[in-house]
Amino acid sequence: MARIAVGGLMHESNTFATARTDLAAFESGGLETGDGIFQRWGEAHHEVGGFFESAAKNGFEVVPTLMGWATPSGPLTSEAYCELTDRLLHALRDAGPVDAVLLALHGAMVADGEDDADGNLLAKVRNLIGPSRPLIVTLDYHANVSPLMVSESNALIAYRTYPHVDQRARGKTAGDLAWRAATARIRPTQAMSKPPILIHLLAQETTREPMKSLIDGLESLDRSQGFLDASILAGFPYADVAATGPTCIAVTDNNLALASEIAEHLSASLWSHRHQLTASPPIAAEAVALALATDKTPVILVDLGDNIGGGSAADSTVLIHELLKQGATDSIVVLFDPEAVQTCQRAGVGGSVALSAGGKIDRNAPPLKVAGLVEILHDGRYVEELPRHGGIRNNNQGATSVVRLDGANRVVLTSLRHPPFSLGQLTSLGLDPKSARFIVVKAAVAYKAAYAPIAGTIIEVDTPGLTASNPARYTYERIRRPILPLDPEPVVKAVI
Ligand SMILES: [Zn+2]
Question: Could you tell me which residue ranges the Microcystin LR degradation protein MlrC C-terminal domain spans (predicted)?
Fold first, then answer.
């Protein structure tokens, strides 16, 4: 029976954030070894769950090593990166002889002093396992893929959906490839191509054109000459590193020329749609006026500048201030504010509180003056059974409280930064999102797997913050130039 080592280290690092991600962030998010990896991820709609599913189907032995995950935020401290890398390498060494290695990476991890944290991790793993042992890796659709990541692995298999609802399926594909490689049925070989463009987050959605057709086209690629898999990754624009931007990857059975040809073809297709890969959402005042004018509720107001899944602060008050200013009622906003939660806990359910909430990390609007009744106190834990962006089953938003203000407006205060990927964030508290009139979600696209089915209206808002949606708002120093939309098109040519 083939033995395949399984592990991973996943972080999406926003290099514009000043906060740093330390070991405690992974201990809080998830840092499992041995059987703990199956306990945490085995049943989840996550690629690691797909690894186990592939093992059950193909009959290979999973040798669990180390799996680390933390909420997107600023880069890792160099100490955390070194420690986690060392632990993973030790666990791989302790796994004994294996026929292949299967890893789950995000692909947009940055550490202090190490812009290509995923590439360097793979180089260390390759150095440990030698040049001939298959190393198969899954990546998030937002990975910023570097040449090192491609050269140090045999196959990079990325999600093909945003919101990411195919994580388990792509993990299973990667597991199947690893098993076929481990049993010498194939020799996965890959190539990549990177068109010189940054794709607006909203244009990255895979149910919108042109990404929908580009991704759908992957299914119809000719499989007759050894083609095995292909990915189009949108990239993560909130990272100022050389690899930032989209990537097209093709994996073949020992046919590098074919892999290059397919990757370049995909890259040319993406480039040909470059003028559609942008968006111009309204600013807060306009968006809230539009929200108040519709009776198709609930209205989901999408706070693009405070997209928690992209590493933002999670406490921006820009939209709730605007909603209250324009007289909104029956609204729900979630703000990260552990101090405010403690104040609510002291007051108890039914107690009245007067406090300042949010606006403490994100300073684009002042803290919100909250005067109202503590309606709910909760431990913040809930389970999501359905496929949702990120694939997290056992969720934790930390101790949480709900304060009801005048006009039936509700402020949900959490003790952990927690993205709106599941309705469980609200329903576990006893709130009914369907009956609210306005809900602010701090996201870009990922929330849709949960919220689109209940939304009356969706309004995306060009708010300020660490994930402001227009790349032109950022000062980049390390990305490749020239690149669209930062440089004029006659200067930027398709490098494919
Ligand atoms: Zn992603």
Answer: 301-478
| Chain centroid to CA 190 | 24
pLDDT tens profile 288-301: 999 999 999 999 99
Domain boundaries, the chain: 3-276, 284-468
Residues with CB under 5 A from ligand 1 (ion): 140, 142
Distance from the CA of 456 to the center of ligand 1, in angstroms? 25
Cα dihedral across residues 162, 186, 54, 52: positive or negative: negative
Q: Which two tokens stand for residue 271?
A: 């480039």
Q: C-alpha 426: how far from its chain's center? A: 20
Max CA distance (Å), the chain: 70
E strands, 331-456, in order: 331-336, 352-357, 368-378, 381-383, 394-396, 400-404, 410-414, 438-441
pLDDT per position as a tens digit, 342-385: 999 999 999 999 999 999 999 999 999 999 999 999 999 999 99
As given in the structure block, the two tokens for residue 76 are: 């890792």
Paired residues of 403 in beta bridges:
374, 411
